[in-house]
Amino acid sequence: MIPRIHKQGSNSLGLLHYLYGKGTHEEHVDPHLVASFDGMAPDPGRHPSATKKDLAHLLDQPLALLAPDQRPDKHVWHCSVRAAPDDPILSDEEWGDIARRMVAATGIDPGDGAGCRWAAVRHADDHIHIIATLVREDGRRPDHHRSGRRAQDEARRIEVDYDLHRVAVGDGTAAKRPTSAERHKAEREGRDRPAREELRETVRRAVAGATSEEEFFDRLAAAGLLIRKRVAPSGDLLGYKVAIPDDRNGEKEPVFYAGSTLAPDLSLPRIRERWADGVSSQSTEMSPDQKDQAPTSSGPAMARRRAASASWQAMLVVDDGRDAQVAAQISAAGEVLDALAKTSAAHTRAELREAAFAFERATRSHIKAERGHDRALRQAARDLVHSGPALGRGEDGASTAMAIDMLFFLVTAVAHWHAKKSHAQQAAAARQAAERLRTAYRDAADIPLGALYLRGRNLSQPLRQRQAASLRQAVPELAEQALAEPGWFALAATLADAEAAGHDPAGLLSEAAGRRELATADSVSEVLMWRLRHMADLPADATAMPQRTTTAASGNDHTAPPSASRSDQPRRAR
Q1: How many CB atoms lie within 10 A of CB 114?
Q2: Around Cβ 345, how many Cβ atoms within 10 Å?
Q3: CB of 441 within 8 A of CB of 521?
Q4: Which residue positions in the chain have pLDDT lower than 50?
Q5: SS3 of 79, please?
Q6: 33 forms bridges with which residues in the sheet?
Q7: Using CA atoms, how far apart are residues 204 and 389, in angstroms rounded to an integer?
Q8: Which residues 6+ apart lie within 8 Å of 50 measured at CB?
Q9: pLDDT attached to residue 279
Q10: How far apart are CA 529 and CA 499, in angstroms?
């Protein structure tokens, strides 16, 4: 259940016209009172002789107790209370009880017999609106300080009492939600998201891997945003505002939002904290040695391999680091997700964008990040941006799957960390991001896994048996599970490639399995396969490896005919 305290107003009748009207999209159905301060207020929705003006006059009567120059300019208090989509439909009596609890909890009508006058209007199944006059019956002003927080606390108790959907408790670090007016405006204009959310996403992407104010503002301009800078008389830059060019107000002027109003960590001072960690101002190019190690890797592919490496190292910090170090890694992981979404191919971009959008909430808590420990992830984000868009095939596509695989485990570790710290909203956001990454991984891994599947299926029986023996030796507790998975063929091909490159397959497997538990993985074989290809500096794209003499023997376990179609190759989840 979500209560929301709206801005105070000065026109009771105007608000009642909205509450009893048809709504902006004819969504108001059967508006009527469910409760009021005395239980006898006139209801313009159900009583033919009652008017909205009658109700407004009744609510505003306490204003007459004050001299005109002592009356508050903004005397109209407005609170909406909305149930979750999966909650049962509550009766008018139940909503009336909820309204009485809300006005008592917020100090509007605390039950002392002299509270403010109020009325609760229901015009839809899932929510009510409460209107009140901010002058008590005794002429005093109500004590409604921090009424929003108090309403949230009462909502948590109501959820328990009515067995409703339990909303995760917030900690005041979330970005401001779009208002209903902003959401309706986006719908009218055909936008996927309200301007506030579009701007927040665009600014986050501009921040990802940036190292200076100049670069940050250049990226904002390149994204097509309008920018206003706030400059002190000394010439120092104090802050900024941004706007979407075609997002206009009633006067046809652009609607600007300050960075701090988009999200707490997007104010200029907070962004500057990231620039003090020494990340290179130049994107990292491949050295000759690196090119020798991965001769088929393009710039985007190498950037994704670096992102996978940085994600793995960050996961170890999340598991064992100090809170301030972990907070820095989580913030930088958000930058990597933003950068990956911005530069990935079309078939993975949408899910990666949703993953980054969800994870944004997980990047903020009351634990202050200790900058510097996130340098590797922030450099990885920078490399992704500067390497440019990736193709959805070849080494670009395969290394994207490798990076997503590592990021999935990092984001899952973040969800566990937040849960241990009782950061309910952040943990929920990280879990949502992990599910999006799971879907993005399936889209990215389909083709490269198919190629590895075919290579592994066509290995000779003795070679595959040798790789199976290495698997049983390295991870005996998980070997049979891995051997029964479709991904075993991809793992077998990878073990063969690693052996041909001079590595000890059993040793690599032991190291890969020992880095982090695998019991919860959906596909042990795929996770091990990506780790091995990364650790052994093997191309992520199997077609880049030289073909070997791999005559398949009849009767091999788990084999399918070499002419099997791609549709026979199951797509595995993380």
Answers
A1: 14
A2: 18
A3: no
A4: 283-297, 549-573
A5: strand
A6: 121
A7: 18
A8: 42, 43, 44
A9: 64
A10: 13
pLDDT for the residue 573:
43
Print the SS3 string covering 503-547: CCHHHHHHHHHHCCCCCCCCCHHHHHHHHHHHHCCCCCCHHHCCC
C-alpha triplet 247, 253, 255: angle, nearest 5°: 50
Phi, psi at 241, each rounded to 5°: -135, 150
In whole angstroms, what separates CA 526 from the centre of its chain? 26
pLDDT at residue 154, rounded to an integer: 96
Give the residue range(s) of CATH 3.30.930 domains in the chain. Answer: 2-161
Query: Would you say domain 2-161 falls under CATH 3.30.930?
Result: yes
- Which residue is listed with tokens 């903020």? 364
- Give the integer Cα–Cα distance in Å for 380 and 403: 11
The alpha-carbon radius of gyration of the chain (Å, integer) is: 29
List, as own/partner pairs, every contact residues 467-474 make where C-beta atoms lie below 8 angstroms and the sequence separation is at least 24, other chains included. 467/491, 467/492, 467/495, 467/496, 467/499, 467/505, 468/492, 470/495, 470/505, 470/506, 470/509, 471/495, 471/509, 473/506, 473/509, 474/506, 474/507, 474/509, 474/510, 474/513
Torsion sign (Cα): 473, 475, 478, 479: negative
Strands 226-231 and 237-243: antiparallel
Three-state secondary structure call for residue 33 = strand
* Count of CA atoms in the C-beta half-sphere (13 A) of 418: 30
Contact criterion met (CB below 8 Å) for 457 and 562: yes
pTM of the model: 0.79
Alpha helices in 9-85 (DSSP H): 12-19, 52-60
Q: For residue 362, what are the CA distances in angstroms to 59, 214, 291, 418?
A: 43, 28, 36, 8
Task: From residue 407, give the alpha-carbon distance in Å to each of 312, 337, 352.
Answer: 8, 8, 11
In this structure, what token pair is assigned to residue 530? 């990506």
- Nearest alpha carbon to residue 103 among 24, 202, 3: 3
The rounded distance, in Å, linking the Cα atoms of 119 and 418 is 40
**CB proximity list for 5: less than 8 A, separation 6 or greater:** 77, 78, 79, 106, 147, 148, 151
Number of neighbouring beta carbons within 10 Å of residue 477:
10
Question: 5: how many CB neighbours lie within 10 A of its CB?
Answer: 20
- For position 120, what pLDDT does the model report? 97
Specify the pLDDT at position 275: 82
Tens-digit pLDDT profile for residues 339-360: 999 999 999 999 999 999 999 9
What pLDDT, on the 0 to 100 scale, is given for residue 519?
A: 65
**Does an H or E element contain 446, and which?**
helix 424-457
Token couple for 365: 């808590």
Cβ neighbors of 533 (< 8 A, separation 6 or more) are: 402, 494, 497, 539, 540
Task: Tell me what pLDDT residue 216 has.
Answer: 96
421: helix, strand or coil: coil
Tokens of 314: 């960050």
pLDDT, residue 283, reads: 45
Q: How far apart are CA 204 and CA 409, in angstroms?
A: 22
